[in-house]
Design goal:
121 residues, mainly alpha, 4 helices
């Protein structure tokens, strides 16, 4: 899978997770389709997809034994690094520690990790 295809997989898993876990009606930006997603966000999604894929690969696919929390934390920290890469002074919500993220976002991040696992299996 190319990085662009991986970025699309990431975005698809994000949107599906938001629809599943977000309480109430999500903000439009949370579920923006790929063709209207900003370039920086596409690049960030591709980078995080690649990091998750590589982590799974160098772990000989033993990441299936990680807890959902561990998977979610990995996605969240990779995303935070991308926010610092793309923004000089990112909004605090963009770089919040995992423990400070809303539960819907923690669950969605775990879903993203598992979507990447599934795509490799």
């Amino acid at each position: 899978m190319t990085q662009t295809e991986g970025a699309r997989l990431f975005r698809k898993a994000w949107i599906e997770g938001v629809h599943h876990h977000f309480p109430g009606e999500p903000k439009a930006g949370y579920v923006t389709p790929w063709d209207r997603t900003p370039q920086w966000e596409r690049e960030a999604a591709g980078a995080v997809y690649t990091q998750v894929r590589q982590f799974i690969e160098i772990s000989d696919a033993t990441t299936s034994r990680l807890s959902r929390e561990q998977k979610s934390r990995f996605v969240a920290i990779c995303w935070t690094a991308q926010m610092f890469k793309h923004f000089e002074d990112p909004k605090p919500a963009y770089v919040a520690d995992w423990a400070d993220l809303p539960s819907w976002q923690q669950e969605t991040d775990a879903d993203i990790f598992e979507a990447v696992e599934k795509s490799l299996g």
